[in-house]
Write a structure and sequence with these properties.
The protein has 277 residues and is of the alpha+beta class. Among the domains are: 46 residues, Helicase, Ruva Protein, domain 3 (Orthogonal Bundle), CATH 1.10.8; 96 residues, 2-Layer Sandwich (Tetrahydropterin Synthase, Chain A). It is built from 11 helices and 8 strands. Helix 1 packs across helix 2. The protein is elongated, with a radius of gyration of 24 Å. The model has no long low-confidence stretch (mean pLDDT 92).
Length: 277
C-alpha cells in the first residue's frame, strides 16, 4: 500500500524513530499505527528499554586532538560484554559518532546524540537500532570536549581508558612529551581535582569528618580533633590533587614542579579521565 509522508512524519513524532524506519514499519503493518509502533519497538526500542538497567562494563574509548592541539575530544562508547565491544558494527558506529563530534563540535553528550550521522539518522536513533540488532545495551557513557592553549591526549593500551590534559603557559613550545607524562599520571593515580581549591567542598567536609573520627578512635583529645583532621586533609590534597601529587617517574618533585621546570609558568587548567569498566 502507499504510505504518505504525513503518516510517516506522524509516526516519527510518536516514536522518535527515523523516517525510513517509520515508513518501513507502516508498510509492514498496512498503515496500522499501533502495530507499526510495536514493529519499531521489536526492532530496537523494546530491546533498549528492556536492558536499560544492565551494566555496561565493556566498550571502547576514542580520543582525538585537533591539528593545532587546541581542542581535544574523548568518547566512551559502552556495551555489556567484551565480545560485542569487538564487533565491527559496534566499533564502526563508535568511530562514526566521533567523526560527527569532530565535524560538528558539540559541547555536551546530549547535543551529540541529536546530531545526524552521514546517512541522516540521529546518533541516538542509530544507537537504539544497533541495540536491537545486537541485543545488548549500548550507550555513550561519556563525551568530553576540551579547549586549551594545548591539549595532550593519552589512551591506555587496552582501549578502555583515556585522558585529556589542558595546559596553559606553554609559551609556544611543543610540550606533548611532558604532557603525556602528566596524562599517564592521571590515568594511574586518579586525581580528584587539579589543585586543592578545585576539590568539591562536600568531599572536603567528608574528609575532615573522617579525620576527626579517626583521631577520636585513636583516643586524641576532643580539643585537638579539628587540628588533626586538617593535617590529614593536607595529606589528602597531596595524594589526590594532580598538581600536588608526587610525579610517579620521579617522586622528588610534584607535578606542579615538573611542569614549571619544563616551561616556567606552565600548568594544568583541567583534565578529563574516562574509563570503561
Amino acid at each position: 500500500m502507499s504510505i504518505s509522508a504525513t503518516d510517516v512524519n506522524k509516526l516519527r513524532q510518536m516514536t522518535g524513530a527515523g523516517m525510513m524506519d517509520c515508513k518501513k514499519a507502516l508498510m509492514e503493518t498496512d498503515g496500522d499505527f499501533e502495530k507499526a509502533i510495536d514493529f519499531l519497538r521489536k526492532k530496537g526500542q523494546k530491546v533498549s528499554a528492556a536492558r536499560a538497567d544492565n551494566a555496561t562494563a565493556e566498550g571502547v574509548v576514542l580520543i582525538t586532538v585537533s591539528k593545532d592541539a587546541k581542542n581535544g575530544k574523548l568518547l566512551a562508547f559502552a556495551c555489556e560484554t567484551e565480545p560485542v565491544s569487538k564487533v565491527d558494527d559496534f566499533r564502526n558506529l563508535a568511530q562514526a559518532i566521533m567523526d560527527v563530534a569532530i565535524a560538528k563540535n558539540p559541547t555536551t553528550k546530549e547535543d551529540l546524540l541529536t546530531l545526524p550521522l552521514a546517512d541522516g539518522r540521529a546518533i541516538g536513533e542509530a544507537i537504539v537500532e544497533l541495540t536491537g540488532k545486537i541485543g545488548e545495551k549500548l550507550i555513550i557513557q561519556t563525551y568530553e570536549n576540551v579547549n586549551a592553549e594545548q591539549v595532550v591526549p593519552y589512551i591506555h593500551s587496552n582501549g578502555k581508558l583515556g585522558v585529556l590534559v589542558a595546559l596553559k603557559g606553554v609559551n609556544g613550545k611543543d610540550v606533548s612529551e611532558v604532557g603525556k607524562d602528566v596524562a599517564m599520571q592521571i590515568a594511574a593515580m586518579k586525581p580528584v581535582a587539579v589543585d586543592k581549591d578545585d576539590v568539591d567542598p562536600t568531599l572536603i567536609q567528608r574528609e575532615i569528618e573522617v579525620g576527626k573520627e579517626q583521631a577520636r578512635a585513636e583516643g586524641k583529645p576532643e580539643a585537638m580533633l579539628e587540628k588533626i583532621a586538617l593535617g590529614k586533609l593536607n595529606k589528602f590534597y597531596k595524594d589526590n590533587t594532580l598538581l600536588n601529587q608526587e610525579f610517579v617517574k620521579d617522586n622528588s618533585k610534584t607535578i606542579a614542579q615538573l611542569l614549571d621546570s619544563h616551561t616556567k609558568g606552565m600548568t594544568v587548567t583541567s583534565f578529563k579521565r574516562i574509563q570503561i569498566g
